[in-house]
Task: structure prediction
Amino acid sequence: MRASLIQIAVDPDEPVDDRRARVARLVRAERGAADLVVLPELWPTGAFAYEEFAAEAEPLRGPTWTAMSAAARDAGVWLHAGSFVEAAGGALHNTSLVFSPDGELAASYRKIHRFGFDKGEAVLMAAGEDLVTVDLPQLTVGVATCYDLRFPELFRGLLDAGAQAFVLPAGWPARRRAHWTLLAQARAVENQAYMLACGTAGTHAGVEQAGHSIVVDPWGEVLAEAGPGEEVLRAVLDPAKVTATREQFPALKDRVLGR
Result:
């Protein structure tokens, strides 16, 4: 399976509609080059642009849905469209959408762990409740978002739901980049699963982004890693490697707690 992670810079001077159109073009450009395309967290607004959340919030089937559904269909790819600010029932959510190659919605995920402690996303957005997996033709993928990466129990839950790979869009800050790489590898190693972590580039709302999107295999080896700027990161995933790793080093069979 060929995967492309599109590491996007969120420029505050770029109108959101223009960025949607630009990102849609980038997705379409992966036609024939990828089976799965992944976008970052909150790329329409910026993960730290808290003051823009309410103004840029959309219904589930809003402009981001429309643009990304069409892009997935035109490119003929599975598309994890990153996340956007969803307005639903009087609340805001950090919501991810996954589209099939025919442009149909395969899954949506509302971020469970909201970052900010007593400010920002933690107080402006409601928490999701449901773990989400998606059955791709060759892999079952578990979906998580950014700060979720720090909570291994979420990934254990996805593992128990059948996940062989994790897809994680993020807006991770540069000052904690070392944690980003460490935790992405740790989640892959401890669950013997692929990790595809797609971050944002540049600076928005005064917060420099880590970039360095990364693809890690089930043994913890880094297959591909981006730099700090805008980039399309590509890697090839071998579904058989998940099975082989779990058979050759069957640590998961020795789990005692949490089962």
The chain has a mean pLDDT of 97. The chain has seven helices and 14 strands.
